[in-house]
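sry for the spam today, last one i promise. struct tokens for design, 328 residues
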């Protein structure tokens, strides 16, 4: 190994592994670029020392600036010395401020003998942790290019899982609406729509970035190109699935609104029937309840029962008319 390529140990990297041509790895206390195999260095791009560390690894100024930028969008840049990519990963952190639609930015540089990955210091990236587990088990990709393709594949797998979850949740809401069990369906549907829209927002430029990498790539062999093309096609399919989720959710939203309107109309209908029956009865009670002289039956003890009988007869007649005209 070339000691000239050693990076001082007081640097903001999270871990570093030296990986040889057979896929065996060795964890390093300080990142050193090997003469054979490649170095995998993982760092926090928002650490104050990140730029200095990347300068030590001889990255150009533009790449360092993009690697440490706070705001990014998915992109792929192919250079003479390697490839620089910015992709998005599903946020699977469990803290209260984390939601799947808040996707994590992953930046990585791929050269012949070095792979640099970077993420925000406050958000774990589970795709990287899965890949780290493979590296620790001495089954790492044998080249830096294979490492990058494996990383893209794992990112795509996590997105697939999230898209599948959204589709399953939507199917559950559709079943609830079908059996007229609304509950909190409206709120849950809004959450799913927001998640799908946010993931689609980042996935569309990610697909464009991967397609750009595929078009500009000249160093990949046929198998590697197949892997990359497969990730592009899967990303395209997930975008189509998210678009279908949006359309299904809109249809479901209309069904929910229809059922809510139908329930409201049913309640109003019942109230209208009750009002129609009691309106003439209220008129009679109002008339005979006036405290004025001259009302008939005031001196007759049987007047009350007669009035009640008339009210019952009127109610029966009204119910019969409503039944005849199919209002009931």
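last one done:
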């Amino acid at each position: 190994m070339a000691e000239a390529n050693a990076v001082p140990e007081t640097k903001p990297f999270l871990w570093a592994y030296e990986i040889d041509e057979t896929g065996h790895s060795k964890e390093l206390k300080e990142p050193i670029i090997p003469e054979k195999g490649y170095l995998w260095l993982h760092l926090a791009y928002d650490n104050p020392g990140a730029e200095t560390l990347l300068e030590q690894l001889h990255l150009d100024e533009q790449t360092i600036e993009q690697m440490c930028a706070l705001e990014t969008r998915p992109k792929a840049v192919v250079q003479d010395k390697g490839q620089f990519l910015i992709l998005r990963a599903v946020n699977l952190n469990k803290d209260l401020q984390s939601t799947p639609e808040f996707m994590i930015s992953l930046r990585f540089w791929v050269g012949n003998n070095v792979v640099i990955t970077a993420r925000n210091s406050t958000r774990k990236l589970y795709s990287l942790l899965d890949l780290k587990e493979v590296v620790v088990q001495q089954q790492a990709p044998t080249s830096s290019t294979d490492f990058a393709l494996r990383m893209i594949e794992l990112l795509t797998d996590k997105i697939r899982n999230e898209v599948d979850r959204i589709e399953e949740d939507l199917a559950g809401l559709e079943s609830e609406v079908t059996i007229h069990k609304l509950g909190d369906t409206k709120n849950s549907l809004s959450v799913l729509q927001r998640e799908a829209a946010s993931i689609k927002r980042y996935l569309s430029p990610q697909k464009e970035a991967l397609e750009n990498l595929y078009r500009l790539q000249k160093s990949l062999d046929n198998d590697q190109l197949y892997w990359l093309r497969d990730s592009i096609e899967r990303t395209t399919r997930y975008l189509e699935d998210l678009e279908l989720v949006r359309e299904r959710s809109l249809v479901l939203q209309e069904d929910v609104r229809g059922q809510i309107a139908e329930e409201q109309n049913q309640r109003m209908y019942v109230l209208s029937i009750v009002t129609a029956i009691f309106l003439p009865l209220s008129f009679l009670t109002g008339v005979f309840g006036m405290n004025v002289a001259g009302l008939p039956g005031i001196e007759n003890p049987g007047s009350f029962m007669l009035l009640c009988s008339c009210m019952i007869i009127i109610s029966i007649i009204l119910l019969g008319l409503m039944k005849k005209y199919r209002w009931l």
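Confidence is low (pLDDT under 50) at residues 1-10. ok im logging off now
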